[in-house]
């Protein structure tokens, strides 16, 4: 029963933090920032892009160091709590933003997004501790499914507040929706901090100058000896490319639907809910598939599906066809993310869980979130076509697929375990 409570609390955190992702990164706040805070001025796009890029860059820089500090101090939960609290408080404070407060809003958003993205490093590192090796894929899939369920829940909760549109005339309801998102995140994240315990906790402060220096040395040690994990390094590089494309699709899906296919706000909400529903199904179904055939084969399958998604989106000339494409994208989004987390967990030595997930979620994951949207934007502006920009993403998926075919998961896992044992000795 205790183990089940741990698993359920871990899953609830995925359910909780997606409220921030949906409301503040993907859907409502980006439109609020452009239309309300910046008054619809074109400079709003540049400012928003800068805010997202800065937050991702900061997380990419600090995640490996703080991940190593977490492993050294044995206080992973304390780090996760700190990042979660920062995200919740900054999100709540964004309810005070309004027209002409772009600088304040950007600072608060950067802090909120850093808290959200940085916390994932420590959250994902728990995966290998709360389940057996043979069930990692299934539990990872359940986690993403709970996240998508959380996205549906928060959207249903605030939908009445969004009926007036993301405009100045509806500013009171929009601000209230940000407070609800912060409360939702805090409420459903709480069980994890009550149920999970840090193992191997060491005496001394959670973070100190000496600890930071040791953490930096530990990270340098990992980078220096990355050749000891050749298949892990190949996977991380593959993940960089295909995750780059996936995050870009997520970032521009609503802009593409609205600008190219002229979706209304109501249609965008229905489209989002449809994508989340299929993402839940994909996460759960491919979780079982991952445990059955392994994460590598599952990732290869999902990347082939992504090829079909991009081609279908380019050829879409109606809202109905784009809805169908969105359903396929949702299924492949949930499955590829769940299988990738499973692959990382299986390849990572236990002694370096948080540190390696710092590279996975931080350095590689966040850096790809900077590069992908930039390429999409440049191609779209240069070619004058969002469909041409979509086509450019096929190159990222191709690079990821080719690199994945060179990953030998079994040999890498053995090498990682041996290296981890050598390090600890």
Residue stretches low in confidence (pLDDT < 50, at least 5 long) are 411-425
Largest sheet: none
How big is the Rg?
Answer: 21 Å
> In the CATH hierarchy, what is the architecture at level 2?
Up-down Bundle
String of helices and strands: HHHHHHHHHHHHHHHH
CATH fold group: Growth Hormone, Chain: A
Whole-number count of domains: 1
How many strand units? 0
How far apart the termini lie comes to 34 Å
CATH superfamily: MFS general substrate transporter like domains
Q: State the secondary-structure class.
A: mainly alpha
Organism: Chlorobium luteolum (strain DSM 273 / BCRC 81028 / 2530)
Subcellular location: Endomembrane system
Main location: membrane
GO cellular component, one term: endomembrane system
Structure description:
- The protein is mostly helical and 425 residues long.
- The protein is built from 16 helices and no strands.
- The C terminus is likely disordered.
- It is a multi-pass membrane protein.
- One of its GO terms (cellular component) is endomembrane system.
